[in-house]
């Protein structure tokens, strides 16, 4: 499932792209003011659907994740990009002088896409950048940044606030057993799931929830036992098996204002690199890492960087 940040916004979006200080170890750092953002809805999805997908992506990414917006001016650090790529690839870090690139490159954000790795459900971002060499050497501070924040087609409206019903539970050994079910705290079940008819002897219903790829998962939600408790039974073991979930991983459920359910996961032990193998394969040598950026600077064209957030 591909989510376009340019056409839907949420209150959890932040103004900075680097998780930490702006130094050479960071690949991209946001400079622009983010007091404004696009409020246009995605033409291929309802506003509620876009909002809940965005919320789910950010929850899966973790509270430390922050991203730039379309139109923001950011600084791209080639040496930082090389060092990040070298941390997950066998080649040694190289100096950017090989490509005749400056130590920092001012760029405007052209596009931001929120994506999920189909191989392991790790979320990541593709940011499209356009070099802005004319900004090099300019002291950008205070109100001077506001004029660089969001271009006119971005809309400039306030972010659409979303307060979905959500719960997150760390899986126990029982939750991941092939013969068991998923035990849901009563308050979480009553807040996120459609109401059960407690007048029935064994209240139950079928739940349908979509993951970040748009895949529907069907679960049997039942209220039973002594003492009684909420359980997801039929369909749950299939989900655990296909997602390769283990005890300690976390599962998240969100319910949108229209009642639609979404679910995501956060792994206790994350892959060393959450990016798809197809992307990592394109960065298996240092020339591949910076050649696109060098070409973009030379031809005044766009290039992409990928960001795998940390919890």
UniProtKB/TrEMBL annotation:
GO terms for biological process: auxin-activated signaling pathway; regulation of DNA-templated transcription. GO terms for molecular function: DNA binding. The keyword Hydrolase does not apply. One of its GO terms (cellular component) is nucleus. It is found in: Nucleus. CDD domains: B3_DNA. Residues 167-269 form the TF-B3 domain. Its main location: nucleus. Keywords: Auxin signaling pathway, DNA-binding, Nucleus, Transcription, Transcription regulation. InterPro entries: ARF_plant (IPR044835), B3_DNA-bd (IPR003340), DNA-bd_pseudobarrel_sf (IPR015300). The keyword Nucleus applies. Belongs to the ARF family. This is Auxin response factor 4. It comes from Vitis vinifera (Grape). The gene is ARF4_2.
């Amino acid at each position: 499932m591909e989510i376009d940040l340019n056409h839907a916004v949420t209150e959890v979006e932040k103004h900075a792209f680097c998780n930490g200080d702006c130094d050479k170890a960071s690949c991209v750092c946001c400079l622009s003011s983010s007091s404004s953002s696009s409020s246009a809805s995605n033409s291929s999805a309802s506003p509620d659907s876009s909002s809940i997908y965005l919320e789910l992506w950010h929850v899966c990414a973790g509270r430390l994740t922050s991203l730039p917006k379309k139109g923001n001016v950011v600084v791209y650090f080639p040496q930082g990009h090389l060092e990040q790529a070298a941390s997950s690839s066998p080649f040694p870090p190289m100096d950017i002088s090989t490509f005749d690139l400056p130590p920092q490159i001012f760029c405007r954000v052209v596009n931001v896409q929120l994506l999920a790795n189909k191989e392991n459900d790790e979320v990541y971002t593709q940011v499209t950048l356009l070099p802005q060499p004319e900004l090099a050497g300019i002291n950008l501070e205070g109100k001077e940044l506001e004029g660089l924040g969001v271009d006119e087609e971005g809309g400039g409206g306030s972010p659409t606030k979303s307060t979905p019903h959500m719960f997150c539970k760390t899986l126990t050994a029982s939750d991941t057993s092939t013969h068991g079910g998923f035990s849901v705290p009563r308050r979480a079940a009553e807040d996120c799931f459609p109401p059960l008819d407690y007048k029935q002897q064994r209240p139950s219903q079928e739940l349908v929830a979509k993951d970040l790829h748009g895949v529907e998962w069907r679960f049997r939600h039942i209220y039973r036992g002594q003492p009684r408790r909420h359980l997801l039974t039929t369909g749950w073991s299939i989900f655990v098996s296909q997602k390769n979930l283990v005890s300690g991983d976390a599962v998240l459920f969100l319910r949108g204002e229209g009642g639609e359910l979404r679910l995501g996961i956060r792994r206790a032990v994350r892959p060393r690199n959450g990016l798809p193998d197809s992307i990592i394969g394109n960065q298996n040598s240092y020339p591949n890492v910076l050649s696109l950026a060098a070409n973009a600077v030379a031809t005044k064209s766009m290039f992409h960087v990928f960001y795998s957030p940390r919890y």
